[in-house]
Amino acid sequence: MVPSTSNIGLQGKMGQQIGDELIAKILGLLSPADLARAEASCTHWRGVSREYGLWTAHLTRLTAAIAEHRQAAVNAASEQPADARQASAHNTSRSASAACAAGTAESSDGCPGGTESCKRRYTELQMAQRWRHGRTQSRYLAGHTGAVTACSAWGGRWLASGSADQTVRIWDLASGITCATLRHGAPVSALSMLGPSTVAAGSGPGMYLWRGGRCVRKYSVEGRRAAVRQLAVLDSALATASGDSLVPVWDLYSGSLQRMLRPHEATAVNCLLATELGSQQVLISGDSQGRVVLTDLEGSSPLAELSMHDFLGMASADLLAMTPDGRRLLAAGSRGEVMSWDLRMLGGRPGFAGQVLIRRPHRTLVSAMSVPEYGADVFALAGPDGHLCLHDLHSGRLLRSIQRLGKSSVLSLAGVANGWVGGRADHGLVLWQFGGWQ
């Protein structure tokens, strides 16, 4: 007897359903890291993961683990003397409450944003716990013969470091080996890594684009002799600052000078950052008077002006950082004051979008600031004492202070996978990595 076409179709659907259930059971046995790899390797597996809510299960288990970790810390604190117990319990409660409360709410809501929302929230919670409680290890990278004044990471594995020894080194962080050395004619003071073998670097008054170990483009403004101090790259736009009020913007690929900006009028520009806000390409710059200006890169028109002075007095905007989601902008002064702005509020009343994170610095000076390469609610500061200090992104509270491998000044900082890399005055780099917390 030959089965009908409808029966064949029904059997096929049942077979596919049974097959998907089996796939879901197998995928459900994987660790979160392996599940993410499986989803990336097969679109059908990714669909099965979404349909069967595998990330919801991981998020639920993580939330429970965070609650257990928090309770264990409270129990340990209860065994200490009264004064130490009160302080320890207070710190433990503050450090864990935000992550645990968020995780509980998300788990009970059943991930209203869908499986992708659960996956994102799982990652954010896991990273938040890692920054706060993860075990740390440090590694020293040697090779430069001068102070490491700039560093930039790409893809979690690759790092470019610029030095007073007039070189840029490309590092494979997995092995700690230098893959290439790019020689310049003056100390390297600014750089941006654009790919595994592509780097834009500022050396003396010139800018250079390197690809595959070769200098393929040079950018300069006739008559300018001041060294490049800052640079920012966004798509095909390259902007630089040299300690005066002018910000030249080049086409990255053709090398042609597109426009000359003066975002702070006569005041010198201290720091630069480029990002996309909605459909606009935006250059963000800070000056010694605490002003942070957002400029439309294409139209050259100012979009908003933010002020640290209104909140912190005579603070100077010396360092800028942007969270990976592009929502929050951080500005820091060399004395350690830090402010943040929620850029989603800038279309309304930008003067009310600012928040002081650090008013009275716990350290005297700050020379570098960075956010994690992947989304999390912390930011890092470093300075002359050689410490890496992690702060809560929402309150500015100091979470951890880590010092490894001596007290040499940290001059530059870059977020990498599971940690940060700091360029130091003693000619080396320190890789801080954060591991498991359970």
TrEMBL record:
InterPro entries cross-referenced by the UniProt entry: F-box-like_dom_sf, F-box_dom, WD40/YVTN_repeat-like_dom_sf, WD40_PAC1, WD40_repeat_CS, WD40_repeat_dom_sf, WD40_rpt
SMART domains with a match to the protein in the record: WD40
Keyword field contains Repeat: yes
Chain positions of WD repeats: 141-181, 221-260
All copies of domain F-box, residue ranges: 20-56
A Pfam family the protein falls into: WD40
Keyword Nucleotide-binding among UniProt keywords: no
Keywords linked to the UniProt accession: Repeat, WD repeat
Chain coiled-coil ranges: none
Gene3D superfamilies xref list: 1.20.1280.50, YVTN repeat-like/Quinoprotein amine dehydrogenase (2.130.10.10)
Name assigned to this protein: F-box domain-containing protein
Biological source species: [Myrmecia] bisecta
